[in-house]
Amino acid sequence: MRFRYSTTNPSQNEFDSLPRVPLILHCEGCTVEALGLVDSGATVNVMPYELGVQLGATWDDSKAIIQLAGNLGNQPAAPFSAMVQVRDIPPVQLAFAWTKNPNAPLILGQTNFFMEFDVCFYRSKMEFEIKLKSP
Fold this sequence. Notes:
Helix content: under 10%
Largest sheet: 7 strands, mixed
Shape: globular
Order of helices and strands: EEEEHEEEEHEE
Structural class: mainly beta
Number of helices: 2
Low-confidence stretches: none
Radius of gyration: 15 Å
Strand content: 35-45%
Distance between the termini: 17 Å
């Protein structure tokens, strides 16, 4: 399934476009639609604070045991999992580092988005492709 690179702000141009994919997340009877950044350079999936709250999670500082790196390196993060669906691809369970940072993007990284999906980037065409991993 192919998607177009996109921006998050109308004032941005195509050079600001990134591979973002619309998702439906399910957890404990809650469903939320979100836009995730497909980031092959991210070690883990990252979920922003508000999205976790919308999915029914309650923050507990004692569970914030994940050490993030990069721009979020000084932020505490807790393990969190949710069922994630990309359009008509069957849902898969993804593990996230749920950060208390309210400005963190929803990041889809190596663990475990890229373990569940095969992704091909066609930056010159401003497109990327996602399909469920082959058995």
